[in-house]
Design a protein that fits this description.
heterodimer, A: about 270 residues, mainly alpha, B: alpha/beta, Rossmann fold, Alpha-Beta Plaits, 2 domains, four-stranded antiparallel sheet
Chain lengths: ~270, ~325
């Protein structure tokens, strides 16, 4: 099993994938982070319609920009660790070296954690750094002296790491690279945001929406960028429950995939 | 010792492998031969646990592949020359596998040297020619220094020099007491490398014999061109010879050239040509696989190995680029 873990780790870091994704995440988040921070910062200067500004809550709201927007990058990384094996047929040498497929599956689920966690550190630092710099310039409290802020930062990294597992699970379910990525982006960037706006627009809330993966990741972090723009969309679940549920998504995908497509003939 | 026992694999209505049994002995190079679509690749994939058989078993010294403690140390295999990530270097490809195979990292550089890729080890595989990928696939198979080697079309994309090199390497490996099985759709490609042949067609076994005995399966015949065909035919019928008309005359079985010449001399028949002939081994091989009982639909999973003249052309193009890239 140690051998499988080392092998999976080497496979992930021996192509350009991980750092191109990290760079893309960094760039994307910097842009989005700047936009969000400036918008909220501008609102604070003009004194108009801000969420609860007391005690660094506003600052923490901008710090959530990382997990609110950047989670898709570790998820793509996780999915690609599985789908590239099928795309380039490296699954053949992989399964020749370790024909016990469950081991390969478990190794992939575990190996993604340090990398998606590292994505979390990078992208959280980017989000927090941008936010803190802006608030300091504006003379507003940065919240960096508060335990609540550091708790948010820590949980943000956890959320990122779990999105990596989510991605691996999805890849195990959908081996086709394009299919997996389209599903991932389509669901997280289009379907879920739209579905979650329904209660806001219609006035009817439904607790089930809190269990959508994006909502879970915001609940883990404890702050939602969306709530800055649309009050009432914010997370409601406790972060431990949300953590368990997000892990659950990844594991259920992995188990279903492991019992179906992962077992098929490799031709 | 590799043993294949009553193996059957169906893809839908098609039987790709049909009650196939044979065994491969250590210390010899065995050619696994058959036309494209005969079920060679499927058989190898089943042996290696990649494809599940409907019936039967494949064992390595009594154990199925998935039960082997260190499969990569016991069995080395190369199935396709395309199973690489194009953005990964050859050395990294092997280093990724080394921890699971159970060999130290320095072994990766060793096998790359063994297959002659040491100077391009750090280059991304996407820039490799077909021949270089073939060598890398072989390096992957040799990584665990295994006692058994299963190589699917290992000469694909290799230039004549490369084929000669591979032949020597396989001989050495067999001489060390290893079990070596190489598949090919052309007997001529492996004829000089193999000691034994296993010939299959339509998923069924046709022959499993030493190469030397394959030659003995030839039916020798005599070519003859009589001045007047009719009396010659009559004579042949009387004596029970087998006759087949050819543009020049007849192909006769059942009599050597000496016997035939003597008989015709006695009978006063004028001959313009008399020669004994032995078909090429390749022709015997083709006759064996063609004569095998056919199945209504024989398209099958290893049709990925195209056999059209066009692909041969592109292969030789590939070979030339291989020479350029491997050369000093």
């Amino acid at each position: 099993m140690i051998g499988s873990l080392r092998s999976e780790w080497r496979k992930t870091v021996s192509t350009r994938l991980w750092w191109t994704l990290a760079a893309a995440g960094y760039l994307g988040l910097t842009t989005a982070g700047l936009a969000a921070t400036f918008r909220l910062g501008g609102q604070s200067l003009t004194g108009g319609g801000l969420p609860d500004v007391a005690n660094g809550d506003l600052a923490r709201l901008t710090y959530a920009v990382g997990p609110s927007l950047g989670y898709v990058f570790p998820a793509i990384l996780g999915a690609l660790t599985v789908t590239t094996e099928f795309r380039h047929q490296t699954i053949t040498p992989t399964l020749l070296a370790e024909p016990r497929r469950a081991r390969v599956l478990i190794a992939k689920l575990i190996t993604v954690l340090p990398l998606s966690g590292a994505f979390g550190v990078l992208l959280t630092v980017v989000g927090v750094g941008l936010g803190a710099a802006t608030w300091a310039l504006l003379g507003q409290p940065t919240g960096l002296d508060q335990a609540a802020t550091w708790s948010l930062i820590g949980r943000s990294v956890v959320a990122f790491a779990l999105w990596g597992v989510f991605g691996v699970g999805l890849g195990l379910l959908i081996h086709n690279q394009v299919g997996a990525i389209v599903t991932l982006l389509g669901f997280t960037q289009l379907l879920e945001p739209v579905v979650r706006l329904v209660p806001v627009l219609s006035g009817h809330s439904w607790a089930g929406l809190d269990f959508l993966p994006g909502a879970l990741s915001e609940a883990i972090t404890g702050a939602s960028l969306y709530s800055g723009f649309a009050p009432g969309v914010g997370p409601t679940l406790d972060w431990p429950l949300a953590t368990v549920c997000l892990i659950g998504y990844g594991l259920v995908f992995a188990i279903v995939g492991g019992c179906t497509s992962w077992r098929r003939d490799v031709t | 010792m590799l043993r294949i026992d009553h193996l059957t694999k169906r893809f839908g209505a098609l039987k790709a492998v049909d009650d196939l049994s044979f065994s491969v002995r250590p210390g010899r190079v065995t050619g696994f031969l058959g036309p494209n679509g005969a079920g060679k690749t499927t058989t190898l994939r089943i042996a290696l646990g990649l494809v599940q058989a409907n019936a039967g078993s494949v064992t390595f010294d009594g154990q199925p592949y998935r039960r082997l403690v260190r499969p990569g140390r016991q069995v080395g295999a190369s199935l396709e020359a395309s199973s690489f990530h194009p953005g990964r270097s050859a050395l990294d490809h092997l280093r990724d596998l080394a921890p699971v195979v159970g060999v130290p990292d320095r072994r990766c550089a060793q096998v790359l040297e063994l297959v002659g890729l040491e100077t391009v080890a750090g280059r991304r595989v996407g820039q490799y020619s077909l021949g270089m990928r073939g060598r890398l696939a072989l390096a992957g198979a040799l990584l665990g220094d295994p006692a058994t080697l299963l190589l699917d079309e290992p000469t694909n994309g290799l230039d004549p020099e490369g084929i000669a090199w591979m032949r020597g390497l396989l001989r050495d490996l067999a001489r060390q007491g290893r079990t070596v099985l190489i598949s090919s759709h052309l007997l001529s490609e492996v004829q000089q490398s193999v000691d034994d042949v296993v010939i299959i067609a339509h998923g069924r076994l046709v022959q499993a014999i030493p190469l030397a005995q394959l030659a003995a399966l030839d039916r020798p015949h005599t070519l003859v061109e009589p001045a007047r065909p009719e009396p010659f035919k009559e004579l042949a019928r009387d004596l029970g010879w087998g006759l087949r008309e050819t543009p020049e005359g007849f192909e006769v079985t059942g009599a050597t050239a000496a016997e035939l010449g003597h008989t015709c001399f006695i009978a006063g028949l004028e001959l313009h040509q008399l020669a004994s002939s032995r078909p090429a081994l390749e022709a015997t091989f083709l006759a064996l696989t063609e004569g095998a009982p056919t199945q209504s639909d024989s398209t099958q999973s290893d049709s990925t190995h195209s056999e059209s003249p066009q692909s041969d052309q592109s292969q030789s193009d590939q070979t030339q680029s291989d020479l350029r890239q491997v050369g000093p």
